[in-house]
Amino acid sequence: MPTILIQDGFRLFFYANEGSEPAHVHVQYQAGVVKFWITPVAVADNKGMSAKDLKNAFAIVKQNEQLIKEKWNEFFSAKK
Q1: pTM, two decimal places
Q2: Using CA atoms, how far apart are residues 77 and 44, in angstroms rounded to an integer?
Q3: How far from chain centre, in Å, is Cα 33?
Q4: Which end of the chain is less packed: N or C, by CB atoms within 10 Å?
Q5: CB count, 10 Å around CB of 69?
Q6: Which of 64, 37, 33, 36 is nearest to 50 (CA)?
Q7: Most distant CA pair in the chain: distance in Å?
Q8: How far apart are CA 73 and CA 59, in angstroms?
């Protein structure tokens, strides 16, 4: 479960077995976890994150979109 970034208490990560899906990132904050597609940035699934926290998570993902893409490609290309 590689962690990409921790910002303002939000942890951005992905699971090592998800390379067959389009690029995405999971964001955990307190008890909530959200899955975001990266291109374009959009919510794929929300499990328990409040609307306010979801808005903040979205902003963090959008701000770090390029870094997330780079880390995704770097990790999953190395697994092939």
Answers
A1: 0.92
A2: 23
A3: 9
A4: C
A5: 14
A6: 33
A7: 38
A8: 21
Q: How many CA atoms lie within 13 A of 62 on its CB side?
A: 10
31-71 residue pLDDT tens: 999 999 999 999 999 999 999 999 999 999 999 999 999 99
The conformation of residue 15, written as its DSSP 8-state character, comes to -
Instruction: With CA atoms as reference, report the closest residue to 47 among 33, 68, 61, 64.
Output: 33
Residue 1: pLDDT band by 50, 70, 90 thresholds?
A: confident
Q: Are 27 and 33 in contact (CB under 8 A)?
A: yes
Q: In DSSP terms, which residues pair with 57 in a beta bridge?
A: none
Residue 61 is inside which H or E element, if any? helix 51-63
